[in-house]
Every structure is written in structure tokens, then in C-alpha cells.
Backbone:
């Protein structure tokens, strides 16, 4: 294993990750790129994502919220998500042309036109409507470049065991943020856990754990189509300020 990682470091350094003004570990960047390449090559996948978020509530108090998400992707233009937890019971369906958000709690929904790919759709609805998708950053093809641009230090912290799974541990940091990522030590290099810590005064934290990855499945078109339940209300949604 040590020889393998040293070989990675040498190859990646020659490929352009040797930095003069930042402390960038080429092994860490190689692992991030490998994970991104594998995810980008998947035709379809599903996983569970369990999130923990610490953020100020309406009273200005730091509140911890828990949510669980079932996620189904079929590239490049199909997505379905079912989320349950402190932020409500809600679902998203994207069929390549439109995306629908549905509240199981209130039995109402919104349907809006969407771009032609999953990534563009996530960007669009986040910008216009403020909808947040679980762990979306890890699925961007530009993840490695974004980390290089935004963090001063990227460090490979060794192999750690999480819930019995050996994972590569990567830590990235700048003056205001600490980002940690655990990637499974397996053939697929799938993400296992991420932590984002705001180093400012409010100490906001986001933590997420991936479970039950399935990368060998067939997802029919029907699961990405939304059918309104009886008496569900179609509502409008205003762009966020």
C-alpha cells in the first residue's frame, strides 16, 4: 500500500499538482480525482445519505438537524430523491425536462422546467429556488479543481476505519473552512463520509455519511416521473432573494 501511494504521488506531481504557494498533497488529489472519475463513469447508481447540519435557527441558536436521503441517479439526465427528517418529508423527481418537488407533509408540489443534465439541474434549482441536494458537490466533475482553487492545504491523512470499512482520509483547509472526506479503500473509490466545518464564530457544521451504494442496477424511466397523489395541490414557488 505504501509503495502504491508513493507511486501515485510521483505520477500526480509530474501531472501538475506540485504547488509552490500552497501545501497540496498529490496523493490526496489523486484519490479525489480517482473518486470523481469512477462516479462520472457510472451509468446508474443509488445510495443512502445521512446528514447532520448545525446552523443557526430563527432564534439565533445553533441547532442540529438530522435528515436521511434515498438517492437514485441515472446519467446524464435522470434523478430521484426522497428525503426525511428535521427538514420535512419531501421528494424530487427529474426526468430530463422538468423537476418536481413534492412535500409529503403538506401534500403539495411544484413542477418547473429543468436543464438537460443532472448537474445543470442541480445548479439551476439551487440558484433560482434555493433547493439543496444532498452531497451535490462530490458529484461535480470540477471537484478536484474546486478544491485546489479554494483550499490552501490539502492533506492525505492515512487509512482510517469507519464502521468497519477502511477509507482514505483527506483533509482540506483554508482560513475559514475545514473540509474532510473519507473515500472507501476499494475498487470503486466511493465516498463514505464528509465533514465541512465553518471555522468562524458560529461554528456551523455539515456532516454526511454514505451507505448502501449500488452501482450495478437498472433504473426504469418510471421511477423518475412524478404522479401527483389524490388531492395534492399544485403550487407556485418564488425565486429566492
Residues:
Amino acid at each position: 500500500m505504501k509503495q502504491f501511494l508513493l507511486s501515485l504521488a510521483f505520477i500526480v506531481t509530474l501531472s501538475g499538482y506540485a504547488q509552490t504557494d500552497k501545501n497540496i498533497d498529490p496523493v490526496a488529489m489523486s484519490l479525489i480525482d480517482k473518486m470523481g472519475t469512477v462516479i462520472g463513469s457510472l451509468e446508474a447508481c443509488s445510495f443512502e445519505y445521512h446528514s447532520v447540519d448545525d446552523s443557526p435557527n430563527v432564534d439565533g441558536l445553533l441547532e442540529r438537524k438530522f435528515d436521511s436521503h434515498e438517492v437514485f441517479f441515472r446519467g446524464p439526465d435522470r434523478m430521484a430523491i426522497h428525503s426525511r427528517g428535521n427538514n420535512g418529508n419531501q421528494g424530487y423527481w427529474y426526468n430530463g425536462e422538468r423537476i418536481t418537488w413534492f412535500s409529503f407533509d403538506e401534500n403539495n408540489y411544484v413542477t418547473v422546467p429543468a436543464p438537460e443534465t443532472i448537474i445543470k439541474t442541480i445548479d439551476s434549482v439551487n440558484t433560482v429556488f434555493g433547493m439543496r441536494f444532498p452531497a451535490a458537490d462530490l458529484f461535480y466533475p470540477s471537484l478536484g479543481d474546486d478544491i485546489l482553487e479554494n483550499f490552501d492545504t490539502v492533506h492525505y491523512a492515512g487509512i482510517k476505519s469507519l464502521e468497519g470499512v477502511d477509507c482514505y482520509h483527506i483533509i482540506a483547509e483554508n482560513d475559514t473552512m475545514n473540509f474532510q472526506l473519507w473515500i472507501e479503500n476499494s475498487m470503486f473509490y466511493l465516498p463514505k463520509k464528509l465533514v465541512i466545518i465553518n471555522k468562524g464564530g458560529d461554528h456551523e457544521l455539515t456532516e454526511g455519511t454514505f451507505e448502501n451504494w449500488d452501482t450495478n442496477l437498472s433504473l426504469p424511466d418510471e421511477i423518475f416521473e412524478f404522479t401527483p397523489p389524490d388531492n395534492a395541490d399544485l403550487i407556485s414557488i418564488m425565486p429566492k432573494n
About this structure: The longest helix spans residues 2-17. Helices lie at 2-17, 26-41, 118-129, 143-150.
